[in-house]
Specification:
By secondary structure, the protein is an alpha/beta fold. The protein has 14 helices and twelve strands.
């Protein structure tokens, strides 16, 4: 029976689905699955896992991963080792046009491999400005200059789109100015809106105009603007992102189990507040009991009328064969170009 996708994206425990997980993923409030390193053994196993996840629902559940490169690459053995985004920024300082080509190529390589194992999209690229303050962002950021980030990120998105994958910019409106890690603390950014708009918002504004498909807000409080973290803030999501920037894609919450999000109440309260603020789909990971409670809490809530239209934008538009991809001339050329980034940077 065909049922619309719900607004909750959940994780699973291992490399195969348990019977309990199958039942949870069939729940009408569930709309997607995010995969982690613990869900990966090899490409064949992952293709079987994603195929089973897709078979559970009509329309199929969305399947996502964090495959940025550098420190944040969930699928490693058998996949291309992607460089951290900072390397593209360093290369840009010396060879701008070459760095733009390499960014586009790296994104294409990442997306093509991920699509070939049955995953719809990666939560990438990172659009945070490297202010030199944030260890959790660090080399995940492209550059200290927001204009350079914009140029490189547009190339990155072009590479994802060329492969057939949608792009997710994060962490709106910018996580790079705070030193606290939102996985373990509630970061506080005390800058005013004008300063944020003149720096951290620049890449988001540029990428929205370039056709960015989705955005993930930061679990950071920008105290001069709103006392709530951005992912729970109608000011940031409705007024700024939807209103001022004119964004009409998907807004994914960051993981509601992170320490910064826990400050907003129990899991059910966090979910309700994030949806009320303007999030379309909520991530809730590494807390199976909370996931069940949230599924039940949201069961009677009417989904936003635009949800299905927006989520449809995130479906993969290509499904390359793994072996054919890795035997292709385009693949060999892309690998050679990617290897050069280590030299030029």
């Amino acid at each position: 029976m065909s049922r619309p996708l719900g607004p909750l994206m959940l994780d699973i425990e291992g490399c195969e689905l348990s019977q309990e997980e199958r039942e949870i993923l069939r729940h009408p409030v569930c709309g997607g699955v995010i995969l982690f390193a613990r869900n990966y053994h090899d490409p064949a196993q992952l293709r079987a896992l994603t195929a089973e996840i897709r078979s559970l629902r009509d329309p199929e559940l969305l399947i996502a991963v964090d495959q940025e490169g550098g420190r944040v690459q969930r699928f490693r053995e058998g996949f291309v080792a992607l460089p951290p985004l900072r390397l593209f920024g360093r290369a840009y300082d010396y060879h701008p046009e070459q760095a733009l080509r390499q960014a586009e190529t790296s994104a294409w390589l990442m997306a093509a491999e991920v699509l070939a194992v049955g995953v719809d999209f990666s939560f990438a690229p990172v659009l945070d400005v490297d202010h030199g303050n944030s260890a959790v962002i660090g080399d995940r950021a492209l550059h200290p200059d927001p204009e350079v980030i914009s140029r490189l990120a547009r190339a990155w998105v072009d590479g994802m789109h060329r492969a057939g994958m949608s792009a997710v910019g994060k962490h709106f409106p910018g996580h790079g100015h705070v030193d606290a890690d939102s996985h373990t603390d509630l970061p506080l950014d005390e800058r005013g809106f004008d300063e944020i708009a003149a720096t951290d918002l620049v890449p988001f504004r540029s990428l929205v105009a370039h056709g960015l498909d989705a955005v993930m807000p930061a679990h950071v409080v920008y105290a001069e603007c709103d006392p709530r973290p951005a992912g729970f803030s109608p000011f940031w999501l409705r007024d700024v992102l939807r209103g001022e920037l004119g964004f009409d894609g998907v807004i994914f919450s960051d993981d509601l189990s992170m320490r910064a999000a826990v400050e907003m109440g129990d899991a059910e309260e966090r979910a309700m507040q994030a949806l009320d603020a303007g999030c379309d789909m909520l991530l809730l990971c590494n807390d199976a009991p909370a996931a069940v409670r949230v599924l039940e809490a949201l069961e009677d809530r009417e989904p936003a009328p635009e949800l299905q239209r927006r989520l449809a934008r995130m479906r993969r538009r290509a499904a390359p064969d793994w072996t054919d991809l890795h035997n292709s001339r385009a693949w060999r050329q892309a690998l050679a170009e990617l290897e050069a980034i280590h030299v030029t940077a």
